[in-house]
Amino acid sequence: MGVSFDKIDGVIWYDGKLVPWADANLHVLSHGLHYGSCVFEGERAYGGRIFKGTEHSERLIQSGRILDFEIPYSAAEIDAAKALVLEKNGQTDAYVRPVAWRGSEMMGVSAQTNTIHLAIACWQWPSYFDPAERLKGIRLDLAEYRRPDPRTAPAKAKAAGLYMICTVSKHKAERKGYADAMMLDWEGRVAECTGANIFFVVDGKIHTPLADCFLDGITRRTVIELARRRNIEVIERRILPEELTGFAECFITGTAAEVTPVSEIADWRFTPGAISKQLMDDYTAAVQPKGNAAAA
Question: Which among 158, 172, 176, 205 is annotated as catalytic?
Answer without folding.
Answer: 158
